[in-house]
Amino acid sequence: MLLVAFLLEVTFGAAFLVAPAVTMAPVGVTLVGMAADAFRLFGTALLGFALLLWCAHRTTNHEVKGVAIRTLAAYYSLSALVLLWLQLAGRFNVLGWGMVATHVGFALWFLSALKAKPSSRP
């Protein structure tokens, strides 16, 4: 779970950092003005999450892994709600549902990991 999320976040973090307009174009978003710069900043945040995911994936410390899982459960849950709101508001084309589904899936995945015993967390 942590490795899959790491791969997703590092991919999109780098894409937003390097080419934000190209990254958002498939979902029907055109970036104007400072929007590209804001998405570049967002890319750095995703790369930070990727680092957290990598460290959590590699650690054997259950407390550290638990903190990372709680943090990521909150992030994916909140981002899923925001993406759903944006999708329903018509901000994205039909491909935006893929972003919604991905974040809902990760939110459910990380929330379910919170219920697992610390020794059996991914």
Fill in the keyword field for this structure.
122 residues, mainly alpha, 5 helices, 76% helix, globular
Question: What features would you describe in this structure?
Answer:
- This protein has 122 residues and is mainly alpha-helical.
- The protein has one domain.
- It has helices at 2-18, 20-24, 35-58, 62-88, 96-115.
- Helix 1 runs antiparallel to helix 3 (35-58).
- The longest helix is centred in the middle third of the chain and has 27 residues, at 62-88.
Furnish the topology, listing elements before pairings.
Blueprint: H1 2-18, H2 20-24, H3 35-58, H4 62-88, H5 96-115
Helix pairs in contact: 1-3, 3-4, 4-5
Short description:
The chain has 122 residues and is mainly alpha-helical. It has 5 helices and no strands. The protein has one domain (2-120).
